[in-house]
Amino acid sequence: MRIARTAVLLFLACSFVMAQTERGNITGIVTDPTGASVAGAELSITHRDTNAMAKAVTTATGEYNVPNLLPGVYRVEIAATGFKRFVQQTMVVSAATTVRLDAQLTLGAVTEQIEVTALATTIQTDNAKVSTQVQNKLVDELPLVVGGAMRSPFNLVAVAAEARGSGQRLALGGGQVAAWDATLDGYSVGTNRSGDTDEAALNTPSVESLTEFTVDTNGFKAEYGQSGGGTMTFASKSGTNQLHGSVYDFLRNDAMDARGFFAKTRSVYRQNDFGFTAAGPVYIPKVYDGRNKTFFFVSFEGFRNRVGGNDAIFSVPTPEMYRGDFTNWVDATGRRLPIYDPATTTASGASFVRTPFAGNIIPAARFANFSKAVLNIVNIR
Prior knowledge:
The protein is mostly beta strands. It contains three helices and 24 strands. The strands form seven sheets. It has a five-stranded mixed β-sheet, with no helix packed on it. Strands 11-16-17-14-15 form a five-stranded mixed β-sheet. Strands 1-22-19-18 form a four-stranded antiparallel β-sheet, with no helix packed on it.
């Protein structure tokens, strides 16, 4: 078995608006020391890996909302005349989530600043949606079994409290089996074929290409129209200002396996799930410097699976048996096993008896019409 898939994702300065999106929001309210709203405060929200910046201004009621943010870690700065600059160093935005950051400014000069270095809370209180965020660390480090197929990102969904089952039996929340939807960067990866995650996995990049995902099981918006029990929102990785990458090979080989308890020998089992990733800024010496502007991410994953015949013993009919000749049908001791004619069934006390076919051969005239048709197709000689 040979399978390969390649994902080339170019993240440019432009953005796309889609009905279903993996983008997140940062929202909140800005107040002064008395709790009064601060109107006209300027916000700068910077992605810490790419330096991509979004700006916003608070409304007359001191509220703000910054939408369409790629999943990642952000630095938030808030400045207003007569107040010290407020800086939140670490603000984590997960896929398809809204994160709240309320800030209380302190009187002082704008040149002064109050810096918050602790990780801001990510508890979502702005709507009734029930979400489980699986962060990049878990996607990168949770082990996935390579058992006869490529690693599937859907296997990671098991960490969500309201996920149960797997494959065609996967269900989310209180929904029925297969009544879920899944998107990658806003595009559906479902196949509309019984909700089989194995098939849907073929529409997604390698696990190495995913940065994180969110599992919503209740209260999600109507835009997720195919989600009977829940929806999975996957976000792909992008390049950053730093060059980085990885090379991997998940190996299984019979040379490192023990013989099964009932097996006489070890069967052939040689499996490789291998690939690489590369990411960074688009940089062409003396032509173009894409740092802080244009990035690339490339991933490749290949799968090779070589499996020999298993060590189980089965009984299969010999060619003459297809013609009704069971002369050589014997047990382990070499004793012939008789074939009885069902048409000769007679009662004998509390039981029934039958007469064996002569010579242990079933006449062709007794073959069912369906069996004759099948024998013509398989052409047994």
